[in-house]
Amino acid sequence: MTTIFAALVLLLSFAGILIWLFSLAKPGRRAELAGAADRLNMSFEPWRMLSTGIRQAGFQILSTGDPRYVPNYIEDETVLLFDFTRLTGRAPTVQTLIIMPCPISTDARLMVSPLARESTHCFDKGKPISRLEHEDLPNTLAEQPIYGLPVHKIRPLLTENVQNWLLAHPHLHIEWAAGMLLVCQPGYQIAGDELEDVIDDVRSLANALASH
Predict the structure, then answer these.
(1) Quick one: average pLDDT of 113-135?
(2) Which of 138, 152, 147, 140 has the alpha carbon at shortest distance from 114?
(3) Closest by CA position to 177, among listed 100, 74, 96
(4) 148-165 pLDDT per residue, tens
(5) Total domains, the chain
(6) CA separation for the pair 160, 212 (Å, rounded)
(7) Rg (CA), the chain
(8) What's the pLDDT score for residue 23?
């Protein structure tokens, strides 16, 4: 009886979370993004299950919420975007995540994140990753919250072009893992009329990383 009761409580809790997540997906935003996706010849889905490859890539930010079903999913053959709710901190926050292929011949994982300044425990549920010391970084990035593993494989990725891009975008959360680049601005949802410019900007970082 106790087992049945516990299972029922768990099921109701999960259902409550799903209802709450669905309530965050505003109809007006869905229509706006669907129209923008159509103009850019991209596909739009109100809800989508993320692929296993993305969920298991090791992106730290996905460990802060439920990455299985995400709202406002937009994609073409070169990039995908979706809204993602972080469940850490004082209150849930929604941000648009951008992910695109970024093939690099390394098994390293890289993260640059202003979220680490908010809390040293914000990524406790993710895969272990180490903050780089000053001596592991170029002088221009010595004070930046940069994380990576293996540590000795991160410095070669931080070319001058990558450094300049990071310095110009200190407000962004950036990760590279499993041949993919993830970028978002914590707490910010990209508007439909911003999609093209944002994608082009992130692609410039992907190109800089891939040409290291």
Answers:
(1) 77
(2) 147
(3) 100
(4) 999 999 999 999 999 999
(5) 1
(6) 9
(7) 18
(8) 47
What the block records as the tokens of 115 is: 């979220």
Task: For residue 169, name the pLDDT band (cuts at 50, 70, 90).
Answer: very high
Order the strands of the 69-75 sheet from edge to edge.
Answer: 43-49, 69-75, 80-86, 93-101, 180-184, 173-177, 109-112, 146-149, 130-131
> How many Cα atoms sit within 13 Å of 208 on the Cβ side?
16
Q: Which residue range(s) make up the domain with 38? A: 2-210
How does residue 129 score in pLDDT terms, banded at 50, 70 and 90?
Answer: confident
- What CA dihedral angle connects 93, 98, 101 and 102, to 10 degrees? -80
The residue that leads in pLDDT, 14 or 77, is 77
C-alpha 11/C-alpha 6 separation (Å) is 9
